[in-house]
């Protein structure tokens, strides 16, 4: 079965200046894939879906309009100085959603078994009505609702291993028992955004469908994989998902400048290898990873290359 790559050169037009979340993140990934003869072996995501009605499944119309006008008016950021924007950012963010949705279509219809989307801007911090932490639209939350409401899939598992907690994704599905959200991240007392404490389990009908697994600064592959195997896997197997979405952040790497975990390529390899096997067991292999963080260019490119190699096996 094929593996897709959801990439568009348009993502480079989101110009952020001297900012960790910069176009070079993607150019380093694409150059590495081409150098290793992987790029041309991946199914391209080259068709378009109107993303606007699906964006509004997650974000308020007021926020969408405010983002659009802020970009058109040349504002340097929206809601927080962390969330840099330029005149092209609104359309780039729409395109990131459109690529994600078409990638979902390709996997659900069997054109590809799985895939990876190196998106900019990232998404998992974006809330219903505001931007946060470099993120404009919550790509993975939108994909989740698209899979449920366009394709009729009932149970979606979202695994988020970005070093920062995905506050926007958690809040979107906090009361939803059709979405199991698990975040593995550096302890919120030590890192932005300060959410994702172990006692946050979800609310109302969604209680028990949120799982936050935290790691202390300096934690290594071993601690991460123990949490994955001992805490995440048993709940994921009980949930029996119809599709797996991964917020694939690689900023837990020991070389990353924005956090303090000590993970290596070997740890990230095990995460995707085991998650791919989980998808094979429960949902016909259907798995889509979306890029979130990762700010050391060399470590990011190597981790993504390895991630895609595992998906292609």
What's the CATH C level?
Alpha Beta
Helicity, as a percent range: 25-40%
Major sheet strand order: 2-1-5-10-9-6-7-8
Fill in the CATH topology: Arginase, Chain A
Order of helices and strands: EHEHHEEHEHEHEEHEHEH
- Taking all Cα atoms into account, the compactness measure Rg is 17 Å
Topology:
Blueprint: E1 3-5, H1 24-35, E2 43-44, H2 52-55, H3 61-72, E3 77-78, E4 80-84, H4 89-108, E5 114-117, H5 139-149, E6 156-160, H6 167-172, E7 179-186, E8 210-215, H7 221-239, E9 243-248, H8 265-282, E10 287-291, H9 297-312
Parallel strand pairs: 1-2, 1-5, 5-10, 6-7, 6-9, 7-8, 9-10
Antiparallel strand pairs: 3-4
Explain what you see.
The protein is α/β, with parallel strands linked by helices and 313 residues long. It has a single domain (3-312), classed as Histone deacetylase domain (Arginase, Chain A), CATH 3.40.800.20. It has nine helices and ten strands. The chain has helices at 24-35, 52-55, 61-72, 89-108, 139-149, 167-172, 221-239, 265-282, 297-312; strands spanning 3-5, 43-44, 77-78, 80-84, 114-117, 156-160, 179-186, 210-215, 243-248, 287-291. It has an eight-stranded parallel β-sheet with strand order 2-1-5-10-9-6-7-8, sandwiched between helices. β1, α1 (24-35) and β2 form a beta-alpha-beta unit. α7 runs parallel beside α8 (265-282) and α8 packs parallel to α9. The longest helix has 20 residues, at 89-108. The mean pLDDT is 98.
Brief characterization of the structure:
The chain is an alpha/beta fold. It contains 9 helices and 10 strands. It has helices at 24-35, 52-55, 61-72, 89-108, 139-149, 167-172, 221-239, 265-282, 297-312, and strands at residues 3-5, 43-44, 77-78, 80-84, 114-117, 156-160, 179-186, 210-215, 243-248, 287-291.
